[in-house]
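Hi F.,

I've been meaning to write this up properly since the lab meeting, where we talked about keeping a consistent format for the predictions we share between groups. The idea is simple: the sequence comes first, exactly as it goes in, then the structure tokens exactly as they come out, then a line or two of notes. No screenshots and no reformatting. I'm using this chain as the first example so we have something concrete to point to.
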Amino acid sequence: MFDCPISFRMRRRKRVRALLLSAIDRLISCLEFCQELSQGPWKMWLFVILILGLLYASVWRIFLYDPCDSSLIRKQLCSQYHTGEVSGTLCYPMCIQNVQFFSYCEATEYEKSFVWHQTKFKVAMIDESVPWWNLQEGTLISEFRGQVSSFLQQKLGHSIYEDVTDKLLLYADFNEDGKLSLAEAQSLWRLIHIHEFLLLFIFQKSSTFPNINGTCGHFYGFQHAPIPRLYDKQPNSWLSKLFTNSYKWEFPHWAKRARVTLGIVEFSMDIYEEQGTKFLMCNISPLNFGITFDYEAMLTSTKDIASASSIKTLLHNQTCYSDSDCLYSKHCQSQCDRRTGRCSGEIIQPTLWFICDIIRDYLLFDAPKHLYYELKRLLGKCSSLSMKGDNADLKHAVVYHDLKSFLWKEIQYRPDA
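Output, unedited:
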């Protein structure tokens, strides 16, 4: 599966460390010898040695320090794999073929991520003492299916998830032998408790969601966007302080931007209704979307996507004095019923309302003159969208269809798109 050259990062670290130590030892010996010859002040030589020590510490911090403890993570996962506790398509290349997926580390309190080639790998920081971490040995497939279905009901809201459950159990058969071992079931069970993985799996048919590229226990990899953000209005550069619109200078050609925008608009519809459940993105910004080499939009963060049902459960009947008290997140807000002093739990605006807001800057800038005003009118129709009322779904579908049709008509025959 993985035929790329194996990284020798860990061996290189040891070699570099040994070379540095050897070089410093020789320098110190040389300095001592020179001191005896010159009878110079010993303080000067001590200062030189101190500088060399600081240099070594700096090199170690940059090239040898491992803030993500990747070697420990790999050791633990491989130990669990060899003892039959976990399974997955990444286990064999990582633990037997010694493929080093751990590079370009980023660490947070909740997860550690690594980029290897064009794939991002993540491992969630979960307390392994939690009761649900390990499945009971002897659990029947029918019992496990029920556990998965109940979890989806709890996580996503009341609906029928038979199709998702079937696909999850089929995916968990990593060796494709038609059976589900304890290691395979346990790995799936841990993975679906990771919010990002569950959403990536549910929306694998959507072109905007990254493809899952494999798993090993609760370690998983997925497609990585080469350009990790659509644009940034607040880049930290002296140029942005002089020219407030300098971020637009890096925009691709308009036709390519239209292609990217089409993908983002389709994303808003992909999550609007899936498996009988509405999903919402509750913090939408240009930083949530990246661009592939083919100028396709790709989601770079799923942490703010949640089902409308789960949001309603949290907000419904919450005490309030104004609408600001009924705020789930930046872009997910319900209304306060001042007669009862309770939140309704119904979200006011759909995701497409906010999508139009972030693509307005991106699409109208330098747009062809014969398209500008029609495009502006279509984006303006988004401001009338609401999730309330009997015709809310119909209005949403009309705005989505008009915007998608307009963009597709303009780029389908353009060679520069």
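Notes:
The CA atoms of residues 320 and 380 lie 31 Å apart.
Residues 9-38 form the longest helix (30 residues).

If this format works for you, I'll send the rest the same way.

G.
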